[in-house]
Amino acid sequence: MAKTDAIIGWKTLAQGCHILEPGNSAQFRTGDWRSQRPVLDKEKCIKCGMCWIFCPDMAYSQDDDGYFIADMEYCKGCGICVHECPKDAITLVPEEG
Amino acid sequence: MANRIGVEVSIAIANAVKLANVDLVAAYPITPQTHIVEHLSELVANGELDAEYVPVESEHAAMSCCCGSSAAGARTFTSSSSQGLSLMSEILYPAAAMRFPIVMVVANRAMSAPISIWNDHQDIMVQRDVGWIQTFAENGQEAVDLTLHAFRVAEDRRVTLPMMVNIDGFTLSHVIEPMEMMSQEEADAYLPPFKPRYRLDPRKPVTMGPVGMPEVYTEAKVAHSEAIKKSKKVILQGWKEFADMFGRHYNLVETYRSEGAEVLLVTMGSISETAMTAIDKMRDEGQSVGLVRIRLWRPFPGPEFRKVAGKAKVLAVVDRCLPPGALCGPVGAELRSLFYKIPGSPKIFSFVAGLGGRDVRVEHFEEMVDKARAFAKRRPKELYDVIGVREK
Question: Residue B3 gets which letter from DSSP?
């Protein structure tokens, strides 16, 4: 996305609305319109990393104990991890409020 | 300077594109543009032009291919007409908004239906607002000169916008005219190599064509609009240096015997030559008439037009396009808004003529001048009048 968090004027916009900084979407909260979130049941999780592999937004990363946890700044709640989890350890829970 | 040699205008344009040393041509043949791209295809096949020639499956693909090529930093050319130009339309917008300096020659032709392969300006007027710089040539020499000029302006880093050179289909495209062609050395001296500010390069990645949320879309449109407005300076500079090198002078608007004229004809493209003959005839009869020809259509040269035409009493504007349901043709509407509420400004009437290849002759220009004078005395019901239309 072209920069939207920073309010910039037409004179400072890059030519052609190009994005000149590779991977700059990391700077934006791309998950803030999520309607449901994945919740992990650590009892069932075998730390296989399938959620991490399949996540289209690279929202998952491994914590110190080896569990894969989605970063809610970037998770869009698509549910692919829920679908791919071989142990049904992840469930989608509606976002409230 | 080289001798004048008789060449078909389309072939001469293709040769000018060769002199510009393009890297890629992507085109789909359509009458009356065909000879331009056929000849370019031959030049590439014969090894005379070291370029990629991409025989695409449609005009939509042609313009898409041109965008990719230009984004990669290649000098890019295409050409089209009428229905083909309309099929490109979707991609003409991003080509301009993403600032790809593609050059296109449009051999102007009517829009269907009924099917007409002949000349008018409906095809380009449909694309008026795509954000390309647009010029109109009067004759073959000008078509060649404007083509070379277009590369220089489009690729200038102060501009970086695509540019269309409009030539009247058949009237120009298929006519053999004596022309001066520049040498390769002269063309190279006029046209520096294409060095884009940004291009697709894996070593230095950029994103072109991202989503623009409501917070940024307006700013992107204003940036584009300001860029095309500012291009006028570079366009003029390009013509000035062209005159210095080749001795042929071009301006944003041209005048012919317009000094002190009460009535001014306003034209674009090749019919201007007939209009000049008509002006000579009317001037000989003692009428106070002159001609103003618009060469640069987008960005519209408002102050320059006002300067040359603002003192006339009446403008008889030729619109080679009849937009159904509009108040008048696009050139008439443009000039009406230019002069709106300016004290002492001329009265403006639009005359629709030369649709679908119908000849516009000297007597038609005389008719326009007469009618415009009469309309100035007694306001007509409509803001436009169709010249030479049969009713029954």
Answer: P
Using beta carbons and an 8 Å cutoff, which residues of A are at the interface with B?
A: 1-4, 7-11, 13-20, 22
Least confident of A8-12, B76-80, B312-316: A8-12
From the candidates A5, A7, A18, which should be mutated to test the interface with B, based on the most B CB atoms within 10 A? A18
Nearest-by-CA chain B residue for A4:
B215
Q: Can you tell me the distance from the alpha carbon of B45 to that of B53, in angstroms, rounded to the nearest whole number?
A: 9
Distance from CA of B73 to the nearest CA of A (A): 14
Is the Cβ pair A17, B206 closer than 8 Å?
A: no
- The pLDDT value recorded for residue B1 is 53
The count of other CB atoms within 10 Å of the CB of residue A43 is 7
Asked, for residue A8, whether it belongs to a domain, the answer is: no
Any domain includes A10:
no
Q: A11: which chain B residues are within 8 Å (Cβ-Cβ)?
A: 223
Protein fold of B253-386 = Rossmann fold (3.40.50)
The whole domain housing A57 covers 30-94
Q: Which two tokens stand for residue A78?
A: 């698509």
Say yes or no: B213 contacts chain A, CB-CB below 8 A. yes
* CATH code of A88's domain: 3.30.70.20
Dihedrals phi, psi of B279, to nearest 5 degrees: -60, -45
Following CA atoms B116, B86, B30, B142 in sequence, which dihedral angle do they give, to the nearest 10 degrees? 90
Q: Enter the tokens of residue B118.
A: 């002949």
- Dihedral (CA of B36, B182, B18, B133) sign: negative
- Angle among Cα B47, B50, B54 to the nearest 5 degrees reads 95
Tell which of B159, B219, B228, B230 to mutate to test the A interface (max A CBs under 10 Å). B219
**Alpha-helix residue ranges (DSSP H) falling in B20-131:** 34-45, 59-71, 82-97, 122-126
Q: Which pLDDT does position B213 carry in this prediction?
A: 87
| Domain boundary assignment for chain B | 4-246, 253-386
Partner residue facing A19 (CB), from B99, B210, B215? B210
Give me the pLDDT at residue A3, please. 47
Q: Mean pLDDT throughout B107-126?
A: 98
Second-level CATH architecture of B4-246: 3-Layer(aba) Sandwich (3.40)
pLDDT (mean) for A56-77: 95
Interface test with A, best of B216, B222, B230, B231 (most A CBs within 10 A): B216
Taking only the tens place, the pLDDT of each residue in B331-364 is 999 999 999 999 999 999 999 999 999 999 999 9
Question: What total of structural domains would you count in chain A?
Answer: 1
Across B125-250, where does the E strand assignment appear? 133-136, 163-168, 176-180
Q: How far apart are CA A93 and CA A97, in angstroms?
A: 13
